[in-house]
Amino acid sequence: MTTSPRAARSLACLLLLAQAPIPLLLVPEAQAQTAQPQSVPDTAPIVAPSVGQADPWLYRGSDIPHDPEWHFGELPNGIKYAVRKNGVPPGQVSIRIRVDAGSLYETDGERGYAHLLEHMLFRQSKYIPEGTAIAAFQRLGATFGSDTNAVTSTTQTVFKLDLPNATPTSLDETFKLMSGMVTAPTLSASNLKQDLPIVLSEMRERGGASKRVSDAMQKVLYAGQPLANREPIGTLESLTSATPQSVRAFYSRWYRPDNVAVIVAGDVDPAMLESYVKKWFTDWKVPGPKAVAPSFGDPEAPAGADPKNPVGETRVLVEPDLPPSLMYAVLRPWRQVIDNIPYNQGLMTDALAQAIINRRLESKARAGGSFLSASVNQDDVARSADATFVSVTPLGDDWQASLRDVRAVIADALTRAPTQAEIDREAAEMEVAFQVPVEQQRILPGSKIADDLVNALDIRETVAAPQDVLDIFRKSKPLFTPQAVLEHTRKLFTGNVTRALFTVQKDGAATDKALQLALSEPVKADASVRAALKPISFEKLPAIGAAKKAVSDVPTGLLEIEELTFANGVKAMLWPVVEEPGRVMVKARFGGGYRSIDPKDAAYITLGNYALVGSGLATLGQDDLDRISTGRKMGFDFEVQDASFQLSAETRPSDLADQLYLFAAKLDLPKWDVAPFTRAKAAAAIQYATFNTSPQGVLNRDLQFYQRGQDKRFATPTPDQIEATTADGFKRVWSKALKEGPVEVQIFGDFDKAAAIAALEKTFGALKSRQPAPVSAVQAKIDVPQPSDKPIELIHHGDPDQAAAVVSWPTGGGVMGIRESRQLEILTQLFTNRLMNAVREKLGVSYAPYVYSQWPVDLAAGGSITAVAQVDPKSVPVFFQTADEIAQDLIANPPTADELALVTEPLRQQVTRAASSTSFFMSQLEGATTDPTRIGTVRSVLSDYTVTTPQAMQALAARYLGRDHSWRLEVMPEGKEGGVAGK
């Protein structure tokens, strides 16, 4: 049973187009005076929804309450469909075409065919000429990769499209194109020749240490089952042996109407959506009966295994660049179930059992145990196994102690029932998780609702409305007894066989036999981390200070957003919005961000991201923070930005006041527990080596450092630098950061204004006056990379056929250039389209080439346009040459009007959709209390991103994309540095 909440029309229609202060907010300035509503011919007749809603195919045999928002139907040829109205975001329709076949449906000689077909269906089909799919969907306003996509798993292939600004004409065209892809692909020799190199490139890009671990995990955990060697990417041998005939044979076997479901959710009447399904899929006919799905097998214990503790395959894998990681799984056969209420009550009890164990394991890790982290998780895997996974990240060399300590906590859970207090605590957390979708059902995106139903089909279950899920949970509470949880815990750790994989960093650290023995040996139950649940109340926490009223409360002139100012200098922006029921977004920006940290203290930035929140506040440590928020929706995200630090959370109206207390107390009453700092040091040191495992990992580690002129504050600290930090140093750096600089609070969403102001008076209004944030010349310096034709050379330890190439052009920064930064987004999209076409066709890369623009609003410089691709090492110079050629052509020749439209229309739809949520305005208005000019820039956001000319794009290219303005970087495999790319 999957929840699938109802949605309704969101903010864009209710607010953005109707507010008096900015009635034309989302109309481009150049068109504002002439834009008129246009009628669009209806190309698909509206018919009444199908009968048979009393017996929809999804719910047959189940007592789960039917979600009345979904309209189900079946066509005479066997296609199943489900459609529903959803207005989030307004005007969008999300279409999913699910084929019930993935890599587990392949024969040995067909490995990789399901995924290869996914590519070839986009290449050419009945209504899409070869190589034109991306442009066809862009003309409809859909961005390739985000709005238009597909995914192949072991058990299904799903084609996805989120169509913005759906009209009868565009919907009809979209269904036409997508139906042609699925029902009548060309699958020619030319298609295969074009797509095979791209798939092989994707195989190459997914290689390296992580892929080796993933492959080993599959082979060990699912030994003897097809899942052990049926990764969707396939094998080099099977893919290079593919022919148009062999690919079509797989297509013909599984791409048939009786094996396909069409799922649609969007801002259109369900009857109209149903009419498109019928119009474009009814005529699909195929000969012969449906093929029988292959058997996925069962996990089996080896002969002679101890029936009480059947430990099977174990393997130790040496990967020097990955942190030590141990996973074992208790495996049971997967069987299709009747998705009914008793089954879901059992799942809820299972979830409670796992949550109790996980909280105990986390408590042991926080207390300085022998492991950095550990968790248990039950999952039904690829309709092949019902598995309970135990994951452990050991600390130090004594991995046996780590495994023993984790198993001892689990053994205690298997020996004695939990207390009712422990159950009630986890049940309260679950209730919040079920309550929030009920409160926010009007604002859930249609894309998620459609995906939820697709996922339910894949696991052979149903969906239910949020209120029904919550009702089932609440009625089930009497079933959640200590004895019931104990029984479910024991079932979770009982299975046919237990298997394990242990990734270590050096030879000799462990052996297969030692791992098997460690899993077989008995352990003594550890009850030391059973929670002693003493109640904690916000009412008993120390006050921030004397409550102070705001000295001013004025409208901003934008929508109904108001700005409050307190005597201590704190400023707050408030926007109560009833159209986002149940959700309140809170941000608190303070201090000076990266630029306020002394470069010699750079390592503490990373540690702050890990440990600042966990170090506590007032009288609360990390465990206390968890307990005090039990049964509440509260958050505590922390982010370091260019010129500020930010705390953020999504909460509920009833929890807003206490959420504000947590943020304010973090600034004024910080606590400095050493344990989170110590754990953060271990985590940062362990993670560092993982960056070396692939070109993308090295870019994640180093690219920002080079983009910012090798400013140490943007570098990933090395293990030696992490080791040199101290708890006193952490407190020195972050206590200074917490108390300095201005404070800006944003509260946007569903809340009572008077109550929010009263809460602000007791929290942020009661803070001490803030100290200025003095920034030295060294700290304030903004470094920009120097132009160079010679690439910076970095190396990775991954596969020898992997490399990455980067070309970057410095641009600018600051609010005064915000329009130009938005116009640069158009330019980068033009660049991306050209680069993707050129590099994918020239080099056969998969999804790697992309171009993006950064423009730091809070700094006067530091922005950049950056082109990136993952390629094979010999192709790095070709990428550099191609990027230079595209840049020079954009300088020499303006784009055509049609090429520009392929970019501006998707951007128009992206901005319009984004503006249907308060979070969009929140991000646009960050810092507006100290820089009011940012308010004005919101009014022009749509026109800035969409209204331009070919000549304006050419001028921007000339300003920024000159070859003598760029610098470049390459990431080569170890042993090939200084090769052809660097000469």
UniProtKB/TrEMBL annotation:
Which Pfam family is one of those matched by this entry? Answer: Peptidase_M16
Which protein are we looking at?
A: Peptidase M16
Domain Peptidase M16 N-terminal, chain residue ranges per copy: 92-229
What start and end residues bound the annotated signal peptide? 1-32
Q: Which residues form a coiled coil?
A: none
Keywords, alphabetical: Hydrolase, Metalloprotease, Protease, Signal, Zinc
| GO BP term (any one) | proteolysis
- Every copy of the Peptidase M16 C-terminal domain together lies at 242-427, 743-901
Q: Which GO terms describe its molecular function?
A: metal ion binding; metallopeptidase activity
Superkingdom field: Bacteria
Name the family.
Answer: Belongs to the peptidase M16 family.
Show the SUPFAM superfamilies listed in the entry.
LuxS/MPP-like metallohydrolase (SSF63411)
